[in-house]
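Hallway conversation turned thread

IA: we were arguing at lunch whether anyone had actually written out Glucose 1-dehydrogenase end to end. Turns out nobody had. So, for the record, here is the sequence (255 residues) and right after it the structure tokens. Reply here if something looks off.
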Amino acid sequence: MTPTYDFTGQVAFVTGASQGMGLAAAKAYAAAGAIVVLTDVQAERIQAEAEKIHAQGGRAIGVACDVSEEDQVAAAIEQTVAEFGRLDIAFNNAGVQAPANDLADQPTEDFDRVMAINLRGTWACMKHELRQMRAQGTGAIVNMASIGGLIGNLDLAAYNATKHGVIGLTRSAALRYAKLGIRINAVCPATINTPMVASMLETQPEAMEDIMRLQVIGRLGEPEEVAAAVLWLSSAGASFVHGIALPVDGGFTAN
């Protein structure tokens, strides 16, 4: 049975919404009645996806935003509130993978890029989302972490460091804002069938064998399965859930 939610009258802000898990969540929020602001660096694609949501009876706009640039994040949040008067839900999903390599050989620019988008980008989004939610006295934030925030990986040290950092931000902010009516949680997917993962597997075909061994369900996850967890954490059904890092991992962390 698929749970149903009613987000009618609420405004949801989704980063990295042009594809994969961000797009799946944006569509799910819209189907549940929310007004959805899709943001991404791929401006044309999010506009097209927002138009598709409109064509299916939902309400959505696309806003170009590079989360590694705080002024762009601030502007996107300001536009959201100016157009719709509030911000109820945020799914801070935007992220990139760093090339797998030995830490001793990692170029500084690779480290800086993954930190700027995955960790500082999440921090910037939370900062400006929380200013609005604090003024409202209500809100729900879901951050995209990863099983990489719960475990180590010998060739993905920088990426995993960003996701450990996202979980630290989530837990610390949850403590600060719980009494102000704002819930902050994170999801920790394993390997999901997204364009980013497809690109990774093209260059590392041997990785699929390890994935199938560790994800005991025996398959990749689907973006909609992660979106289902995100919607639950965004909903009143998770009203007593604060500061968690929820694995959505096909049994990976049960190993």
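OS: looked through it. The mean pLDDT is 94.
IA: good, adding that to the notes. DSSP finds eight helices and seven strands in the chain.
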